[in-house]
Write a structure and sequence with these properties.
The chain is an all-alpha fold. Helices cover 83% and strands 0% of the residues. It is elongated.
Length: 126
Amino acid sequence: MAKYLAQIILVGAQVVGRAFMRALRQEFAASRAAADARGRSERPQSAAASRIIGISLQEAQQILNVSNLNPEEIQKNYDHLFKVNDKSVGGSFYLQSKVVRAKERLDEELRIQAKDEKEKSWKAET
């Protein structure tokens, strides 16, 4: 009887182990596909900025609640969210840091766009 119980436990562990490994492989493949898609959808400089700052452009726009890259709107929303999440008024330091990172990412994207426009206008002149 003990022999059969041991065999059942062993077979069960093998089945669970295989299912876990299959799920892990699927997760790695999905993660790789998402990273590739993100890299293709953004310009190389923008993708590099996302990796350096650690936040995507879309996530930064969602955090600061902006739909387009308008510097005045970004600054206004940043100031409001930064003040609201100040720890001295009962806010969250974590949320405040997310707001700061989002602002940094959007500022970097604005810098990249300005640089691209400057290069295009320079190429058009020559």
